[in-house]
Amino acid sequence: MTPLTSATPASDLARPDTPTIRAALPMAALLAVVVLWGIGPPMSKYVTAPSLTIVFVRLWMAVPVMFALQAFAGSRPSVEQLRRTALGGVMFGLNMVAFFASLKEASIATLTVIGALQPGFVMFGASRLFGERLTRWGVSFTAVGIVGAAIAVLGAGAGVRSTPIGVFWSALSMVAMCVYFLAGKRARSDTKLSATDYIAGVMLWAAIAVTPFSLLLGGLGRLDAIGRADVMWMTLVLIGPGVAGHLLLSWALRYMPVSMSSTAMLGSTVISIAVAWPMHAQPVTAVQALGGAIALGAVAAVTLRRA
Fold first, then answer.
1. Of the candidates 5, 30, 135, 236, which lies 20 to 30 Å from 272 by C-alpha distance?
2. What is the dihedral of CA 28, 32, 34, 36, to 10 degrees?
3. d(Cα 17, Cα 5) in Å, to the nearest integer?
4. How far is CA 148 from the centre of its chain?
5. Which of the two residues, 105 and 201, has the higher pLDDT score?
């Protein structure tokens, strides 16, 4: 067993030490992230305030929560922490701006299927940055998963549509998230930052990054548009997909290939489309169900093989 010292990050005390645990715990964490991030978009669509106002308030809500968790874990902010989390934080802030903007112009299905392209970009980025080996199996089934997610969206009913600007915001959100994944893997692999340290820094930089957008584009002028229901939904998203989801992902990235972690997120696409049916009356057709089954099967093929 790894000896515990005063320098051991509290959030990493449960570090896997046996082959079985090394496989089981990160996979369980990743599965939880898939579920949490899958229900995030349908929950966020209930927030009716302007997009930039939502992003600004939600991120600045997360900052004190994360730094309180960091202090509880026995750590404190440092210059190294802020330096190592800058890229991931700025990219996450950009992702949030684009994500909420896309919710106003695009269906959840469109948003999630464009996001499903992310594993392909992350896979090739991980190969160049971290030397993760591209296998025929991994590339093939990641492509199958992307196709399955695309089928799930193309099979949507006629009443579910998106505007061109909605597609643009969805694509920008996907690109920013690709960089966020790769930056998170590098920060957690190359340094002794715990998951709590990393996400605390990310939330701070993300909040700083979105503030100019809010100032210039009027997001701060609409704080009065946030109602009680908006606060409730933002708080639920903050606690679940936000804090819990990002902490679990950051922890798992230290022990798993980032390409596999990103591919597993295809499962979130299927969950989002399925949950949007009862929550937002966006019915799932037989074609969408087929596409979802293909995507989930591909995710299972990649993750189980790599595990």
1. 135
2. -170
3. 16
4. 20
5. 201
Q: How far is CA 111 from CA 145, 156, 183, 203, 290, in A?
A: 16, 13, 22, 22, 19
- Please name the residue that has the structure tokens 């992702």: 95
DSSP type of residue 116: T
Residue type, 148: G
Greater confidence (196 vs 297) lies with 196
Q: Which residue has the tokens 């930089």?
A: 205
Q: What letters, b where the CB count within 10 A reaches 16 and e where it falls short, cover 114-134? A: bbbbbbbbbbebbeeeeebee
pLDDT given at position 264: 76
Query: Which residue do the tokens 């499903």 mark?
Result: 116
Instruction: Give Cβ neighbours of residue 152 (< 8 Å, ≥ 6 apart).
Output: 109, 113, 269, 270, 273, 287, 288, 289, 291, 292, 295
The two three-digit tokens of residue 248, written as one number: 């679990």
* Residue 164: predicted pLDDT: 77
Retrieve residue 277's tokens.
């049916």
Q: What does the alpha-carbon distance between residue 269 and residue 152 come to, in Å, rounded to a whole number? A: 9
User: Which tokens in the block code for residue 237?
Assistant: 């998203």
Taking the C-alpha atoms of residue 227 and residue 48, their distance in angstroms, rounded to an integer, is: 8
End-to-end Cα separation, the chain, in angstroms: 22
Spatial neighbors of 143 by CB under 8 A, at least 6 apart, are 120
Which of these ranges, 141-145, 152-156, 265-269, has the smallest mean pLDDT? Answer: 152-156
Residue 225, number of CB atoms within 10 A of its CB: 12
pLDDT digits (tens, 9 = 90+) for 234-275: 899 889 988 999 999 999 888 888 877 777 777 777 788 788
